[in-house]
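Why does residue order matter? Because the sequence determines the fold. Keep that principle in mind as you read this record.
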Amino acid sequence: MHTLRKNRPLRRIVLASAATVSGMVMLLSLKPHITPTVAGVATSPVPSSSSGASSGGTGSSGSATGTRTLTGDSVQTRYGPVQLRITLKNGKLTDVTAVTYPQENPRDEQINSYAIPQLTREALTAQSADIDTVSGATYTSEGYRQSLQSALDSASG
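Structure:
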């Protein structure tokens, strides 16, 4: 006697339901892999070497001299607002600080604990808002780019 014979549809329903419930329990028991990081990291350190990028001479990338701190627009993303504060020294981008970014739940904190420092490094290297999107943090990357561009625009105008 086969357990899934056609003349016993109730047995098939019970077995299918049990298999579905077992599968759902196994899926819900999976935990996401969490890498050990410091939660709430909003910035990365200023690069240790700021020389070597210039080719000598007096050409500056902006009209301003001295140190200026500017705050970009708050950009609303799918998971929350992103807002940056930049520091310019003699027209050169020397620091980017994430003032506001999504951190409503542990997953947001996990994503942004690696995305924000990576975006900051790229912005400091590129000296512009022309930076790559961080995989897994598409919305944060887009908000970061827009807020950075607005801060840079306010510096030049």
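Residues 43 and 79 are 19 Å apart (CA to CA).
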